[in-house]
Design a protein that fits this description.
ten-stranded mixed beta sheet, three-stranded mixed beta sheet, 5 helices
Length: about 190
């Protein structure tokens, strides 16, 4: 449902750094809805799962019932953008340590594989074949990509941005850069 002609995007706001995503998407013309209860997804055309602490957010997702509504949202073909912790929550397999996930994205990931908080870094990778600034904060590494998953972005030859149908997931934080390309890709999925 469009509000004022703008696409309505739900921003999971239980925990984590969600405000920066909202700012980028608002600049691109989206109407942002902070989502704290599953019923607040009603009418949203897309959903952002931001960075944060995956074990904490997984507990909150299960406690509030998002473990049922997020898979339903995805099955309806609505776009989901998952960054850093969001990637972990959607992966089919999570290691270091192993943990439950929603299993909606056919990738295996290793938590905190790029180092601890003090090891956070910025680097220039590629998105859709062009240079893209990337910010990694306790980021997961994509270890394995399923056959129906398309790699859209890399860092030093490793996949860091992937798409499977209506799900777009990044190991890094595109919302912390001045380049809106990842969010533009996400919004383009609304019309696919």
């Amino acid at each position: 449902m469009k509000e004022n002609g703008k696409p309505a995007i739900g921003l999971l706001a239980l925990q984590g750094a969600f405000h920066a995503h909202g700012e980028v998407l608002a600049r691109l013309g989206a109407e942002i809805r902070e989502v704290r209860l599953p019923r607040e997804l009603n009418g949203a055309e897309g959903l952002v799962l931001p960075g944060g602490e995956s074990t904490t957010l997984l507990r909150l997702i299960e406690e509030y019932g998002f473990d049922k509504t997020i898979p339903l949202f995805a099955s309806e073909g609505k776009p989901i953008l998952a960054t850093c912790m969001g990637l972990i929550l959607l992966a089919r397999e999570v290691t270091n340590p192993a943990q439950r996930s929603l299993g909606l994205l056919d990738v295996a990931v290793e938590r905190n594989a790029y180092g601890r908080q003090v090891d956070s870094f910025e680097a220039e990778g590629e998105v859709l074949g062009r240079p893209f600034p990337m910010v990694f904060i306790r980021a997961p590494r994509i270890l394995d990509v399923g056959k129906n998953v398309e790699v859209l972005g890399t860092l030093r030859g490793e996949p860091v941005l992937v798409r499977q149908r209506n799900i777009l997931a990044a190991a890094f934080h595109p919302e912390l850069t001045m380049d809106p390309a990842v969010h533009e890709i996400f919004l383009s999925l609304l019309s696919s």
